[in-house]
Specification:
Elements: H1 5-20, H2 23-39, H3 41-44, H4 49-71, H5 80-85, H6 88-98, H7 102-113, H8 118-125, H9 129-149
Helix pairs in contact: 1-2, 1-4, 1-7, 2-4, 4-8, 6-9, 8-9
Length: 153
């Protein structure tokens, strides 16, 4: 299956935004991810390019977090127009998602927001396909229970 990098750009951006919670920083990290991906020409033509692309993005997000932690950069204020447009259901869903472990949140993001297959997620995370399926099913069950308790069913 050939890797369409143009299709992956938005997905990598979503992934980075999920990690850093800052639009400009996510854009910078996404650009840097693709620059590093293309600079390593040997790996692009062999191996698992999608897993490599997400590994670069993950490492850059971690580096960004470490840099932010040491420099104490002030956090960006939330956009008031975005906050007013959010519905009660999406707010409840976001709150429910935050109760899940970060690794599970990441898996759900890759599966549902970035439309990656379970096999692609498994190769990226290093977990087995069975473990990925189990984590997704468990997380969805927890989310359904939480949403029922909040009367959003």
């Amino acid at each position: 299956m050939p890797l369409s990098l143009q299709e992956q750009y938005d997905k990598v951006y979503k992934y980075c935004y999920f990690k850093v919670k800052n639009q400009h920083q996510a854009e910078d990290i996404t650009q840097e991810t693709f620059l590093r991906f293309f600079n390593n020409n040997r790996y692009v033509s062999r191996g698992k390019p999608l897993a490599y692309l997400y590994t670069i993005a993950r490492n850059l997000c971690i580096d960004s977090y470490r840099k932010k932690e040491t420099h104490q950069i002030p956090t960006q204020l939330p956009d008031p127009t975005t906050a007013t447009q959010a519905s009660e259901t999406s707010i409840a869903l976001k709150a429910s998602l935050k109760t899940l472990p970060p690794e599970t949140q990441e898996i759900l993001l890759l599966r549902y927001a970035n439309d990656l297959s379970i096999g692609e997620i498994a190769s990226f995370t290093g977990l087995s396909r069975f473990a990925i399926r189990r984590k997704i099913n468990s997380a969805l069950s927890k989310l359904k229970t939480t949403m029922r308790e909040e009367d959003f069913t």
